[in-house]
Design a protein that fits this description.
single chain, 98 residues, alpha+beta, 56% helix
């Protein structure tokens, strides 16, 4: 069981730990983030733990991303740029692995 990873994610969403990881967790969880955030904010820790465990068992990529965030090995940077031709205004997210 990935209890320390679940505990880390719960703490980041409730503001118990340093929230530098908050935005990275939000991006990693995608649309599921809002469900987990609601469970964390309403202090429904049992449901949070169960659903997070299920997600981690089903999605190895999310699990690895959360591990990277927990260990401080993954930094996400949002780059904004504008231009013309092939480089039309837009944003992109770049993963930088340390």
């Amino acid at each position: 069981m990935d209890m320390d990873l679940i505990t880390f994610t719960y703490a980041a969403l409730t503001g118990v730990s340093a929230n530098a990881a908050y935005d990275s967790i939000k991006q990693s969880l995608g649309t599921a983030f809002y469900r987990f955030e609601k469970l964390a904010k309403t202090e429904d820790k049992d449901s949070f733990n169960e659903e997070m465990q299920l997600l981690l068992e089903q999605d190895e990529e999310v699990k690895q991303q959360l591990k990277d965030i927990q260990q401080g090995n993954n930094t996400r940077i949002k780059q904004s740029h504008s231009g013309s031709g092939d480089n039309v205004a837009g944003d992109k997210t770049v993963n930088i692995h340390k």
